[in-house]
Amino acid sequence: AQAALFQAQKMEAVGQLTGGVAHDFNNLLTIIVNSLDLLTRNTRDARDMRLIESAQRAAERGAKLTQQLLAFSRRQPLQPALHNPNTLIGGFEAILRRACGELVKLQLALAPRVRSISVDGPQFEAALLNLIVNARDAMPEGGSLRITTGNVTLGENGQTIAELKPGPYVSVTVADTGSGMAPEILDRVFEPFFTTKEIGKGTGLGLSQVYGFVTQSGGHIKVDSTPGQGTTITMLLPAQDNGEEAVEDEDGTERPIQD
Ligand code: ADP
């Protein structure tokens, strides 16, 4: 509990500091991106075009970084809506597959009749992408990556988690067959800016975002890792009650119906 409190205070402090900078930076990036878009329309020269494109890629990377910083500093409040987790993952599958690259085999093991969860859709996707990118990076020579969903009922069959109320939850698990982590790394993974990746590759904010998303959604995150064997990360997210089914609107958002 002490460590969790320290973690929360640290995230708060770093969040306040970075949030303001990220916000202003994002505004500047918008100007850069818009100007580059305008330039591409009037440029005929192939060499100029390549320069513009490389500037666009750099700006995109910057935008991604500021998005991560903003999400993490909670300048963007979560906007929860009712979603079927399988539908969220399915709708995002192409991007996840691209993120995996050629060497990593992505398997989806989505439970049929999985409960609906009330989460911020884009933040759920961001969390999943962060987990996938980490798993991929832990398997430079390739391997397998499995995303599993399932229904979990806390309070039943003796299953409890100290900080969570008994009731229905959905588990979303990302398991890889990568490098795994030594205990001293595992202890620090949720620390903002903690990274073992080289400069320019890692920000150390991926798992901070995942942690913030899960805890603010009223859930719990668990990391199991064995050096040389792989890592399994499970997000437990509060779900709708059993008796409730949900139907989907066109935009993928669900509204509950009682049957
Ligand atoms: P980043 O990916 O930018 O380094 P993260 O917060 O996402 O930041 O991760 C922090 C660190 O945790 C990583 O640098 C890595 O050392 C370790 N890590 C996270 N996920 C995994 C994984 N699936 N396998 C091995 N190590 C991992």
UniProtKB/TrEMBL annotation:
The organism sits in which domain of life?
A: Bacteria
Q: Which UniProt keywords apply?
A: ATP-binding, Kinase, Nucleotide-binding, Phosphoprotein, Transferase, Two-component regulatory system
Residue ranges constituting the Histidine kinase domain according to the UniProt record: 20-241
Q: Name one GO molecular function term.
A: phosphorelay sensor kinase activity
Q: Which GO terms describe its biological process?
A: regulation of DNA-templated transcription
As given in the record, the signal peptide range reads none
| Name this protein carries in UniProt | histidine kinase
What is the source species?
A: Microvirga lupini
Shown portion of the whole protein? 268 to 526 of 646
